[in-house]
Hints:
Elements: E1 14-18, E2 30-36, H1 43-58, E3 63-68, H2 79-85, E4 90-94, H3 117-131, H4 174-187
Parallel strand pairs: 2-3, 2-4
Antiparallel strand pairs: 1-4
Amino acid sequence: MKKYVVTAVVVMAFILSMGAIAFKANAQTVTLRYSNFFPAPHKNSILAEEWCKEIEKRTNGKVKFNYFPGATLTPAAQTYDSVEKGIADVGLSVLGYTMGKFPLTEVTDLPLGSQSGYLSTKLNNAYYQKFKPKELDGTQVMFLSGHGPGLLNTAKKAVSKLGDVKGLKIRGTGLSAKIHSRTWAALL
């Protein structure tokens, strides 16, 4: 079975991996395993599940999915590897969770000042189409996605000026987190 991967890079680098199987129009049903780290009620998980249903509909039920939200099949950082190894056929994760594994594609994790997810997604796909990084050769990339400028979300303390951040723990991932942690340290 040849593996294909859908890669979604969300500035912190989302990866959506798809293992597709070539089959004849009259072939028997193929069931694919889709691993997603987002919890089931999250919007990205809901959209992934709708995508599965749409593929089933368009193939007249010849392609079906066993969908595993909430990292119930594979943890986010192991999703790409799980598709390469055949544990999952489709996966959704964050490339930034595997810092160093995709050094060329980490460029999409840099704070490039994108104004929207739409523009980030276009940029990420243009990058992939132009450079076809060999680090993703273990799969067939279907698409990359991205998001707009990051926001600082807090649950306990309102942040309205830079000084309000002092003493707070800030979570980030990948290369972007490394860059931002140095920036915050310099600013505070």
